[in-house]
Each structure stands twice: as C-alpha cells, then as structure tokens.
Amino acid sequence: MKNKMLLKWFFLVSVIAGLALAGCEEETKKEGCGNGLLDLGEQCDGAAGEDSTCAELGYYNALGEPQCRADCTWDFSACGGRCGDSIVEAEHGEQCDGDNLNGNTCQSLGFSGGVLSCSEFCQYDLSGCVTACGNGYTEGQESCDDGNQAPGDGCSAVCAVETGWSCTGTPSVCTAACGDALIVGDEDCDGANLNGNTCQSLGFSGGTLACTVGCAFDTSACVQ
Prior knowledge:
Elements: H1 2-30, E1 44-45, E2 48-49, E3 67-68, E4 74-75, E5 113-114, E6 117-118, E7 124-125, E8 129-130, E9 165-168, E10 173-176, E11 206-207, E12 210-211, E13 217-218, E14 222-223
C-alpha cells in the first residue's frame, strides 16, 4: 500500500514537472528575435511583421520588398530612395530632402536673402526668402528691376514689366514695345494708333498723318 502511494506521488510530481518544463519551453519559444513571432520591441521576425511593399511605404522602387534583418529590424535597401531620407534624388523630381538643400540658399535661387527650407514633398519652400524691389537685381518672382520703384518707366513699383514694355538686363533696361498698338514711353504713335493726332494738330494745313515702324510720326503726306 505504501509502495502504491509512493508510485502515485512520484507520477504526480513527474507530470507537474513535465508541464512546468513544457511551459518554460513554450515561454522561451515565445520570446526573442528569430522565433518567427513578433515580440515586444521587434519590427519584424522572419515572415512576421507588417506586410507592406516599398511603394506603400513611400519608396520610389515600386517593385521592391523590404527584408527582415537578423536583428528583427527592417532592411529597406531594396526599396531605393524616398522623400524623407535626406538624400536628394533629382531623378525623381526632388529639389531637396529634409535639411539637405542640395547646396542652395535663398540667394543662390535669386533672392536678396532669407532662409530657404524644404517642404514635406521635397520641394523648395521659398516662403522664408525675401526680395528687395528697386535694388537693381531681378529676384524671386520679380520680372524686372530697374533700380527704382517709380512706375511708368516700364518696370512697375512692384518690379513687374508694365504693359507695352519689354525689360532686359541687370539692372533692367526697359524699352517701349513698338508694334503693339500701345503708346508708351517716348513713342509718338504705334501702328494705326496716332494718339488722337492729325496733320492739322501738328501744325499742318492738311494731309494724312501716319506712323513709322519706329513709332514716330510720319508727316510726309501732310501739307503746309
């Protein structure tokens, strides 16, 4: 009887020990990189992890697949570049990337000064750049700068080319655009636009006033 009790006790202890050992093995199996399970702190583990393509993660290589490293972190080297990796991929239309401005400043882009930055879409953000209309340099959105802010000389007070003019050079030199039927600057006339003048208004007794190709009065047909 005593022996039977001992055998039962031994069997019970063996079962409990076996269950405890199996539990420990199961617990060990559930923890650590390389067990095929996504444990706390791991980005991936073998096939376990977020199943995303390179394209879904914003990378330019649409056919690439991220790989799981031996330390259970993602390896995106097969994905190529993306906006946000601090590398300027001009072939993908990037002008800049994060703090990488590709060597440019507001000044190198034609502004007087200010702070150049990069947008979340890897394009230059010019909102921090400043211009100075009237300094003789065509900057930013200016279409001309003749060194002053006086209107009526071809370049307006906000450094825009005025209607009927063309401006070139630095500082801008503006000339009347003869042939556009608009009378500006030192033009007497422009095409059929005689600015209301006739031979008589110019002191002749009669005749027909005309306009030369250089936008000056042609009085050859006027009579004294």
